[in-house]
Amino acid sequence: MTLPPEAKDLGTLEDWFNRKFCTTGVYAIIGPVSTYIGQSINVESRIAEHARTVYGPDRRWPDKTTGPAILRGQKSEGPMRVMLLQECPEIELDSWEAYWINFFVTLGIQLANRAPGGGLAKGSISMNEWVKKQRGS
User: Fold this and answer.
1) 40 and 95 in contact (C-beta within 8 Å)?
2) Residue 123 has pLDDT above 70, yes or no
């Protein structure tokens, strides 16, 4: 997959297991099955939460296969890469998340997101409905 030069490769999800940083922006977890686009005012902490779900002793998901849909089953398929797609002020998070989701959709990348992002709440419109609208079908 080819991403724009401003996208930074931040290593594998496993690398993030115990890191502590603080960046506001939009990130991607690129797995062998699907990709997840997210936003946070503390990207590093949020990615570490995802990593604990897969690699750590998270009590909510003890078998590491029934956790959030974004990571379910991908650990055994191969490494998941973490990319910082966009650093931005908090006020711009929604618009940049929507931009990056649209970018990946236009490339035909399978996304694990349940909602189209950009402040659209889960349940307001499904990701499948949103993709169909974007593609004009």
Assistant:
1) no
2) no
Helices in 38-92 by DSSP H: which ranges?
43-55
State how far the Cα of 19 lies from the Cα of 116, in Å rounded to an integer: 28
**Kind plus residue range of the DSSP H or E element containing 28:** strand 25-30
Matching residue, tokens 């991403």: 3
Give the percent of the chain with pLDDT over 90. 24
Sign of CA dihedral 109, 31, 12, 15: positive
- 39-46: Cβ within 8 A, 24+ apart: 39/93, 39/94, 39/96, 39/97, 39/117, 40/93, 41/90, 41/93, 43/84, 44/16, 44/19, 44/20, 45/20, 45/21
More confident residue, 13 or 68: 13
